[in-house]
Amino acid sequence: MSTVEQSIDVDVPVSVAYDQWTQFESFPQFMHGIEEVRQLDATHLHWRANFGGHVVEWDAVIAEQLPDERIAWRSTDGKANAGVVTFHRLSDDSSRVMVQIEHESEGIMEKVGSALGADTHEVKSNLNRFKELVEDRGRASGAWRRTVEHGDVQR
Predict the structure, then answer these.
(1) Which of 13, 40, 74, 139 is deepest in the core (most CB within 10 A)?
(2) End-to-end CA distance of the chain
(3) What pTM does this model have?
């Protein structure tokens, strides 16, 4: 498994950054290669991506979600990956978004790309596009503020 860790400071309150990140179906707007994310229910997602002409699909579960703090996930089939996004208050009007992703490289091209840092560059580029999206808008396009523990939505 390869691990990528990146962060970015955004000029919006932590609640705005978090709320926008919970809008999983908007990920294709800022994540290169992601064609579709379908939210199947409160904790399950179906992803479709196109990496260099190679279409891959996988399902994922939100294992943990704490409003304004963190979202953790893992794939349940298809492309092996897992990670966590954490949200940190820097001031009333700024926050830091930190991403840690573990993924399994498939095939020689992905393995070479990972070894050369292509996946790290891609995550950083995606975070830059997220920053542009959320700062230009100044607010989140929606929100989901429930807590998830061990894959179960808490009441």
Answers:
(1) 13
(2) 34
(3) 0.90
